[in-house]
Write a structure and sequence with these properties.
12 helices; alpha/beta; binds NADPH dihydro-nicotinamide-adenine-dinucleotide phosphate; binds ketopantoate; 2 domains; 46% helix; N-(1-d-carboxylethyl)-l-norvaline Dehydrogenase, domain 2
Length: 318
C-alpha cells in the first residue's frame, strides 16, 4: 500500500490532535478527525494552526466525525485524547483496522500499559512522545508556540522481533515526515517517558498551583528551587528503577525552557477550563513506581495533593 492510500485517524482533536492532523493533511495524507465539543465548529470553519514559527495553516473542509463507528477503518491512529479520556479502548477498536498502528501521544508514565489490555491483540501500540508547545485558543484554533518533534517507540503488539518493530516505526516516521513533522526512533518507550516527565512533573503542576507561565517560573529563585527539587525526585525514582537519566539533565531542561516562548503547559489549560487534569499519569504512577523501589517523593506528593484539592473544588462546582 502506498503512503497516499493509508488512512490516518486522529482520536481526540485538541491541541495535539489538531496540530499533527493538520500537518499530515498539509502533507497530502487522508486524515479523519474524531471530535467531541468542537465538532460543529470544525465542520463549519475547519482547523487553523496559528504558529509562531511556521506560516499559518488552515485546513477546510475537514473529514470530521463525532462517532468512531462512522470513521473509515484506519491504518494509523494518532491518539490526541488525554490520559483522562474514557472508553479509549472501544473508540480505538472501532476506528482502526484489525492490524492498526496506534500511536499514543500522551504525557505521563504507563499510559501504554493501561491501554494495552483494552485493545485487540492484533493492533500495534506505539508510544509517541511529543516535544511541542501547543494549546487550544478556541474551537478549531490551535496556537503553536515552538518545537514539534515526535519520538516513536514500539510498546507491544504482533511485531515481536526488533527488526519488525523498527520497520513499523520507520513506516510511522515516513508518514509523519510527509507532514513535515520531525521524528526520531527509540529502542523503547519507558526511558524516554521518564526523561520527559522530569520536565512535565514540575512544570505542569506548578503552572497550575502558582498560576504562572514558564518564563516567570524559571525567572524566580523560589520557583526555580522548587522545580529543581521536584526534578531531583523524579530522577532519583527513575534511577532507582534502573532508568538511565543523563547527568546534567536539569541544567539542560532549564536552558531549553529559558529560550522557549512563555508557555503554559497542557495541565494549566485543563485547570483554566475546569477539565479533569492528568493527575494519575503525571503524578500517581510516579509515586507508585517510586514507592515500589523505596523512594519517597515528598515534593511531588505535596504537588499532587494540592492539585487534587483544586480539581475537587472545581469539578464539584460543575
Ligand atoms: N499541548 C501540548 O503542547 C502537549 C501536550 N501533550 C500531551 O498530549 C495529550 C493531549 O493534550 P492536548 O492536545 O494539549 O489536550 P486537549 O485538551 O487540547 O485535547 C484533547 C482532545 O481530546 C478530545 N477528546 C477527549 N475524549 C474524547 C472522546 N471520547 N471522543 C472524542 N474526542 C475526545 C477532547 O475533546 P473536547 O473538545 O470535548 O475536550 C480534546 O479535543 C496530553 O496527554 C498532553 O499531556 C504532550 C506534549 C505537549
Ligand atoms: C516539554 C515540552 C514543554 C516541550 O518539549 C512539552 O512537550 C510538553 O509540554 O509536554
Amino acid at each position: 500500500m502506498s503512503q497516499s492510500d493509508l488512512k490516518i485517524g486522529i482520536i481526540g482533536t485538541g491541541a495535539i490532535g489538531g496540530f499533527y492532523g493538520a500537518m499530515l493533511v498539509n502533507g497530502g495524507n487522508d486524515v479523519h478527525f474524531l471530535l467531541r465539543s468542537e465538532y460543529q465548529a470544525v465542520k463549519e470553519k475547519g482547523i487553523t494552526i496559528n504558529s509562531l514559527v511556521n506560516p499559518e495553516l488552515h485546513i477546510h473542509p475537514v473529514q470530521a466525525y463525532q462517532d468512531a463507528a462512522d470513521m473509515p477503518k484506519c491504518d494509523w491512529l494518532l491518539v490526541g485524547a488525554k490520559s483522562t479520556a474514557d472508553n479509549l479502548g472501544d473508540i480505538i477498536a472501532a476506528a482502526g483496522k484489525p492490524d492498526a498502528k496506534v500511536v499514543l501521544l500522551q504525557n505521563g508514565l504507563n499510559n501504554e500499559d493501561h491501554l494495552r489490555p483494552l485493545l485487540p491483540d492484533s493492533m500495534h501500540l506505539i508510544g509517541g512522545l511529543c516535544y511541542v508547545c501547543l494549546f487550544r485558543e478556541g474551537p478549531g484554533l490551535v496556537k503553536h508556540q515552538s518545537n514539534g518533534m515526535i519520538d516513536l517507540g514500539y510498546h507491544s503488539g504482533p511485531a515481536v522481533s526488533k527488526e519488525e518493530q523498527q520497520a513499523l516505526l520507520k513506516e510511522g516516521a515516513a508518514l509523519l515526515e510527509s507532514g513535515n513533522i520531525p521524528t526520531r526512533l527509540l529502542p523503547g518507550v519507558d526511558e524516554a517517558r521518564w526523561q520527559k516527565l522530569v520536565w512535565n512533573a514540575p512544570f505542569n503542576g506548578i503552572s497550575v498551583v502558582l498560576n504562572a507561565g514558564t518564563q516567570e517560573l524559571v525567572g524566580n529563585p523560589a520557583s526555580r528551587k522548587l522545580i529543581t527539587e521536584m526534578m531531583e525526585e523524579v530522577i532519583a525514582a527513575a534511577r532507582a528503577r534502573g532508568i538511565d537519566i543523563p547527568d546534567g539533565v536539569i541544567g539542560y531542561m532549564f536552558k531549553g525552557t529559558e529560550i522557549m516562548p512563555d508557555y503554559y503547559p497542557s495541565m494549566y489549560h485543563d485547570w483554566l477550563h475546569k477539565r479533569p487534569m492528568e493527575l494519575d499519569a503525571l503524578y500517581g504512577e510516579l509515586l507508585r513506581l517510586g514507592r515500589e523501589v523505596g523512594c519517597s517523593l515528598p515534593k511531588i506528593e505535596a504537588m499532587l495533593d494540592q492539585l487534587k484539592f483544586l480539581q475537587a473544588r472545581y469539578l464539584s462546582n460543575q
